[in-house]
Design a protein that fits this description.
About 60% of the residues lie in helices and about 10% in strands. By secondary structure, the protein is of the alpha/beta class. Strands 2-3-4-1-5 form a five-stranded parallel sheet, with helices on both faces. It has a two-stranded parallel ribbon with strand order 6-7. Helix 8 crosses helix 9 and helix 12 crosses helix 16.
């Protein structure tokens, strides 16, 4: 792959635990395992783009060194290979052989482990128990509740939190400087707003925007991210609460037809902006209840345009009371 086509999320992926961004407490605990040259089974859970897979890779590099990682570390995506046969063959065959290096063990990293079937998880539990002296497992998932209790009880659990705005700001500014990208301050704020704690999404937005235009501002970022400018969302909510339903509806039509923003994205932004509005707490609670109801209807297959219009109508009626 040429330098121009290289994906920045891979290009700037940390190589050691010291380089992992935004998970200081977790990194310190993992570095303690490296210093003692020991490791329990691990379960990493948390939102996407918060460094779970990267932390597993960096842990393996720090433990084995770059030369032995390929021999002692196996990474698999459980969403692609989720059946019991994979656990009984590929995983078991790797786990039962000795590691290269004195006093070491192998590591199997199962990404998206919450996609494993129930039978596969029970087979995995037995494999973890039988080959614990030769191999350690790192299970990565978005929802730890989808992992069966017998596996959870065998693992040290690490909960990854969304990356803070300040950490995203530093990393995106660093990459922009390295790549010679002209990133405006409002463009940076738009990337932070759109990424919602997902550093991978933030880096992808930066790269996509840099390919589209030499100058990256908020308008370009929101267009690429499929998001509306927060001020437009605030104006739409405010107008509906003031009883200006037709004007609020016009903004909604512009966002969906002209800018092509999805109903799910608009509901998500309405939900976020309600918290930022300076209105009575009781009214804010009611707005959130109505928004949640509309989100459920859309998730169940309701027409987003009709449901969002109904939401604005409800806001207008509430504002007039």
């Amino acid at each position: 792959m040429s330098e121009e086509l290289e994906i920045w999320t891979e290009k700037y992926r940390p190589k050691t635990l010291d380089e992992v961004v935004g998970q200081k407490n977790i990194v310190e605990r993992l570095k303690a395992f490296v210093r003692k040259r020991t490791l329990p089974h691990l379960l990493f859970s948390g939102p996407a783009g918060t460094g779970k897979t990267t932390a597993a890779l960096c842990l393996a590099i720090d433990l084995f060194g770059q030369s032995l990682v390929s021999e002692n570390f196996l990474e698999m995506n459980a969403s692609d290979e989720r059946g019991i046969d994979v656990i009984r063959t590929k995983v078991k065959d790797f786990a039962r052989t000795s590691a290269l290096g004195p006093g070491m063990f192998k590591i199997i990293c199962l990404d998206e482990a919450d996609n494993l079937t129930s039978d596969a998880q029970h087979a995995l539990r037995r494999t973890m128990e039988k080959y614990s002296k030769l191999c350690r497992f790192i299970l990565i998932c978005n929802y730890s509740s989808k992992i069966i209790e017998p596996i959870q009880s065998r693992c040290a659990i690490f909960h990854f939190s969304p990356i803070t705005d300040e950490d995203i700001r530093k990393r995106i500014s660093f990459i922009a400087e390295k790549e010679g990208v002209k990133l405006e301050e409002d463009g940076l704020e738009a990337i932070i707003y759109s990424s919602q704690g997902d550093l991978r999404r933030a880096i992808n937005l930066l790269q996509a925007a840099s390919i589209t235009d030499e100058k990256i501002d908020s308008e370009l970022v929101y267009q690429i991210a499929g998001r509306a400018h927060p001020e437009l969302i605030k104006d739409m909510i405010k107008m509906s609460l003031e009883g200006k339903f037709s004007e609020a509806r016009n903004i909604l039509r512009e966002l969906t037809l002209k800018y092509g923003i999805s109903g799910d994205a608009l509901i998500d932004q309405i939900h976020r902006e309600i918290f930022n509005m300076e209105i009575d707490e009781e009214k804010k609670v009611n707005l959130l209840m109505y928004t949640g109801e509309i989100a459920f209807r859309v998730a169940e297959g309701g027409n987003p345009d009709i449901q969002l219009s109904a939401l604005l109508a409800k806001f207008s009626l509430m504002g007039l009371i």
